[in-house]
Amino acid sequence: MPLTDVKCRNAKGKIKPHKLSDGGGLHLLVNADGAKYWRLAYRWHGKQRTLAVGVYPAVGLVEARAARDDAKRNLAANVDPSAVKRERKRAAKIATGNTFEAVAREWHENWKGARTPYYAGQILRRVSVCVFRRHDGAAIFCGVIYLPGDQTGFAGADAAEIGD
After folding, report:
1. pTM greater than 0.85 (yes/no)
2. Which residue, 19, 71, 122, 134, could crosslink 27 as a Cys pair with Cβ 3.0–4.6 Å?
């Protein structure tokens, strides 16, 4: 039998976490401390997976059901709902402009004023090659960057040595 908002609101924590099923793999996980979490159980390539949909009451019953339906559409299109959620989070983080690359480029704009254009360009190129390269959304760091004023400068492969 599908859940109602009243059942969700009145669910209390027990000694162990328990699930209140809504159907289609969607359930409300009620922890011992009374915290309530929407979860979606599904199978991907024969393996059981669980997708976190949200926290109740911030995500209501209607929104949780909509997220379940969206995930089921992704599964029907042979797309992993967890991968879709991960990509959405990554895109939202990039859209805010608060990524490491955005902060580093802003720092470089402020820092380069007291340096020669050649040296500032060299540092930006090295940071771009070694730090900003991405593989599956993760930054790859291939050297050590010392703080400005450190006499050793950049320790690691030069941009020409790394190649593209």
Report:
1. no
2. 19
